[in-house]
Amino acid sequence: MLIIIARDLAARLRDIAAACDITQRTAQNIVNDLEQAGYRHRERKGRRTHYSLCL
């Protein structure tokens, strides 16, 4: 999951889920867990969400 986010920081949750072959709900839970653990940061820019990795 981190590799998918690192490749395209502007990827939609739908794109991340499709790349990992999981449901959007599962991807959302994993992305939220990564944020709570401090591995990534989420920032809204207009109507899109952009991610950054904190490694």
Q: What's the assembly state of these chains? A: single chain
Task: Give the overall shape, derived from the CA principal axes.
Answer: globular
**Number of separate helices:** 3
Strand order of the largest sheet: 1-2
What is the H-and-E element order? HHHEE
Could you tell me how far the N terminus lies from the C terminus, measured between alpha carbons in angstroms? 14 Å
Helicity, as a percent range: 40-55%
Given helix and strand content, the structural type is: alpha+beta
Largest sheet, in brief, is: 2 strands, antiparallel
Flag low-confidence runs.
none
Please provide the count of β strands.
Answer: 2
Average residue pLDDT: 88
Calculate Rg over CA atoms. 10 Å
Task: Outline the secondary-structure elements.
Blueprint: H1 2-7, H2 13-20, H3 24-36, E1 40-45, E2 48-53
Helix pairs in contact: 2-3
Describe the protein.
The protein has 55 residues and is α+β, with helices and mostly antiparallel strands. 49% of the residues lie in helices and 22% in strands. The chain contains 3 helices and 2 strands, in the order αααββ. It has helices at 2-7, 13-20, 24-36, and strands spanning 40-45, 48-53. Strands 1-2 form a two-stranded antiparallel sheet. A hairpin with a 2-residue loop joins strand 1 and strand 2 (48-53). Helix 2 (13-20) packs across helix 3 (24-36). The longest helix is centred in the middle third of the chain and has 13 residues, at 24-36. The radius of gyration is 10 Å and the shape is globular. It starts with a helix and ends with a strand. The model has no long low-confidence stretch (mean pLDDT 88).
